[in-house]
Amino acid sequence: MDRRKALKQLVVAATACGCAATGGRSRTESRKRPKREVCMETYTFKRVGDCAIKLDVYTGAAAGRLRPIIVAIHGGALIMGARYPIQMDVFSPLLDKGFAVASIDYRLAPETKLPEIIKDVQDAFAWLREQGPDLFGGNPDQIGVQGGSAGGYLTLMTGFCIQPRPKALVSYFGYGDIVGEWYSKPDPFYCTKPMVSKEEAMSAVGQGIPCGNPQGNRRGDFYLYCRQQGIWPNEVVGIDPHTTPDSFVPFCPVKNVTPAYPPTLLAHGTNDTDVPYALSVQMADALQHAGVEHELITLEGAGHGFAHAKPEDYKNVLDRTTAFLLQHLA
Predict the structure, then answer these.
(1) Hey, CA dihedral for 14, 4, 190, 211, is it positive or negative?
(2) Residue 285's domain is classified under what CATH number?
(3) Where in the sequence is the domain holding 313, given as residue range(s)?
(4) In the chain, count of helices (H) and strands (E)?
(5) pLDDT exceeds cutoff 50 at 30
(6) 164: how many CB neighbours lie within 10 A of its CB?
(7) Which residues, 6+ apart, have CB-to-CB distance to 146 below 8 Å?
(8) What is the pTM of this model?
């Protein structure tokens, strides 16, 4: 498989499933709307220089009450990806129940380091709690979170970096540790791909403050380079995990689980070559040790993004996601 094809598959999988507040409504952006009868509005929740950081709010059936909110956080290794499109097979059952889904953007690495990415997520929550009731009937006290891959990582981060804490978390093929060998040493799987030179990698990033994933960019080259060299933590956080590992503790959900952590649903494929299945097992073990309500759904043979999952296994993930969020938010 050549590098371009490998990167295309990576971006598709990683961005599946699901990064000063103006309070104003923006012009609806020109792109395809879901086929269902779903309303979508785009808002700017924060500005950093010339960068407008946006979120899309989806609403469906009339609620007759304040709508529980699901915050959807996109994946892409914190380097790629955007708030759209969302996976309607995940969210349609909740929209039908009167929920709102808020899919958020955040600034991307390496131009923006992890502490500021997390700050974007925190500011999105603050905006939703302040503006949601008036703009779309959102319930500021009933918020859950769903994300996949790096979006799953940020979902798990919200379990302790957002106050008040979300009511429930759903992480698909996510991770609670960013300093393990899987991220901080050259990855055997990615080293089988055509090697990316430093010059190629650096030419793909560094153009302003990226937010969203414009067509035609080569940010996947930078990610592949980071995995081949084992320097993702260095480039995304700006700290060397081999010299100052303790500096990463505030950014590792697995090290910040307490009995106050929200109920959590994890789902992961055993053949994931991007985020090892063991990362969700590790998170489940930490939740178990702290006495936190949780569930780990194992998809035997499935890869990243649930690639090659058995249809019945994927349906089970969707059904359990709906039931879990209804249980804690409805």
Answers:
(1) negative
(2) 3.40.50.1820
(3) 15-177+254-329
(4) 10, 8
(5) no
(6) 10
(7) 17, 18, 70, 71, 72, 73, 90, 155, 169, 170, 171, 172, 321, 325
(8) 0.91
